[in-house]
Amino acid sequence: xxxxxxxxxxxLERLVPGAGIxxxxxxxxxxxxxxPAALARALTLVVRRQEILRTVFRATETELTKSVLxxxxxxxxxxxTPLGEGDVQAAVQEFVAAPFALDGSLLVRGAVFARDGxxxxxxxxxxxVFDAMSTVSFLGELLHALQDPDxxxxxxxxAAVEPEPSKESVEFWREQLRGFRAxxxxxxxxGNPPAETPDLAGESTWYTLSRPARDVVRRLCRELRAPEAxxxxxxYCLLLSRHGAGRDLVVGSPVSVRPAGHESxxxxxxxxxxxxxxxxxxxxxxxxVNRVRSVFLEGIxxxxxxxESVLDEVRDAEGGASWRNSLCTHLFNYVPGGTSGDFAxxxxxARMRDVENGFSKFDLEFFFxxxxxxxxxxxxxxxxxxVFRTQVFSAAEVGLLLARYDxxxxxxxxxxxxxxxxxxxxxxxxxxAVAGGHRHGLPTALPLSPAVAQFSAYAPGEWSAVRALxxxxxxxxLPVRVRGELCLAxxxxxxxxxxxxxxxxxxxxxxxxxxxxxxVTVQGVTFGLDEVDAVLxxxxxxxxxxxxxxxxxxxxxxxxxxxxxADGLAARLLKQIRVSLPAAAxxxxxxxxxxxxxxxxxxxxxxxxxxxxxxxxxxRAAADAVGTAVDADELTDQLLALWRxxxxxxxxxxxxxxxxxxxxxxxxxxLLQRIKRTTDVKVRIRLADLFxxxxxxxxxGFIAEKSE
Length: 708
Known about the structure:
The chain is about 35% helix and about 20% strand. The chain has about 700 residues and is an alpha+beta fold. The chain is globular. It has 5 domains: about 5-145, Chloramphenicol Acetyltransferase (2-Layer Sandwich), CATH 3.30.559; about 165-190 and about 225-345 and about 355-395, Nonribosomal peptide synthetase, condensation domain (Chloramphenicol Acetyltransferase), CATH 3.30.559.30; about 440-515, Roll (Luciferase, domain 3), CATH 2.30.38; about 525-605, ANL, C-terminal domain (GMP Synthetase, Chain A, domain 3), CATH 3.30.300.30; about 635-705, ACP-like (Non-ribosomal Peptide Synthetase Peptidyl Carrier Protein, Chain A).
């Protein structure tokens, strides 16, 4: 059987069927010719020698198993593809991203791409048999087999076996993570809110740390007597905290867990350490470094425990379902050494080529690569490769984060004794954008809103002396694209809160995002009810919309335009909501009314909330009277019975979440198979659908919608 770590990789892959999300590669350019037949022979030799590369996996609907092929059964064919220079990168990326079939086939393949002036050699490998830390060993083996196939050592190398984690280490992580809540939903005040149904599409960008920032890092290593990785990690935690991750955050850090004596073993031998860091804003950076150093070193000492193995035990019982390890949405990866230098293949110069598979399993990951400066031979340089999910961040937003990280490090050089809560994370670009917004008078930057109109009436003619700011909950000013409360500061120092959610844009304009009192958290996801209203109003048949939150759920009221049939309008709107917003933002009910009640020209939200509460109360009373779950639909009842069976709990209701009541990914896969066998459901239900609709009522509604 596959291990827990291996099974988790497979389950993540099932969220995006037909995609190479777990694919890695070793790709290099050669200023000469490598014949495909020569690469095929070399790859075959390496795979025959390395047992882990002969390990194959078979996936059924409910489990993953593995076996090892005999050396003589292995042959690795290699195609050759002639291309022009401009086509190489796209062709190699397509080759690397093509998914592997978990049907007992090898999880290794190679190709040679001919180009003007030489060729590009690429070997794609599945993460089940390889990790990034295997690259140096694998490349050494491959080059040896290419250059001297007859002299290559063919003695089989057994796969390295990680020891079982000790009880003490498991208990260490339980204690470390006990009571942790991921920043009120795990999302930042920056980028997009977490998506319930992921596509895991990813991109990356490179950034070279400025010389002043690099000098500060080297100085802090000496003054604070801390490793470079600890200094960089401390600053990364502070950057995330100031963007909404909170004062109690977890940052993942991948580490090799190869057993002693097998430090250069090829295979999947990485665990992500969920490093929990508590930041006291009143203490200086030195105190943060001391805390991070302790957490980092203790974590490495207990690195044999995959974070997933304790996730179910430490997850808040009332937390919402998540398709991923919600402890680690942001990663820190310190990668000294590596294979970035030049080498030779058959006497020809060669160098590594960066290739992406087009996916990211985490919201954001900073890879720090010391000794990789902007100029060849710059051994003091440090480059950052930022990998991010495009559902969460744009490349421009990640660029802002990188510039702020650099600026924060530079600032530490002069303000090391300051409390970290007073350290600015603003970059020069942030300051320029906000200054530009005020240069020609605030109204040019600020859209009209009820709060702004009220201020204008209160202080007519005073706009030239007014400064706008976007504030964090603690009152600190937020930089470009970070969401916070719009405040207006007068010349006498008076700061007036508007209650509007806003953010600065790079061009100096302010974008209003709705009322702060319209922000709600459902199933661990924070969003604005104004967002729900905007999606409803985008429908051609809706003249007005107002959503309210009742008992942790969303109820929406809409007034029709009369351009379409009233019958079925609610169902049509729910379909639009499901495409445009996270599942947590889906209204449990859309109520069509002739007209929205109003107070002072705006929807009477309090009256609508009371109406929704009364309706919910009548439904609860009706359900209690018949002694059944809230929803008496036949499919919901069938699913509820399966929930109770799989989770071994008779107290579950139609609104009980599968994952928040003890379920996990593998059990979810088995549940979906049982639903397929024992009900009349004909539509395909993916694991991602269960994460997005984790209750019997929600999943039944999703199935009914898909069946129409």
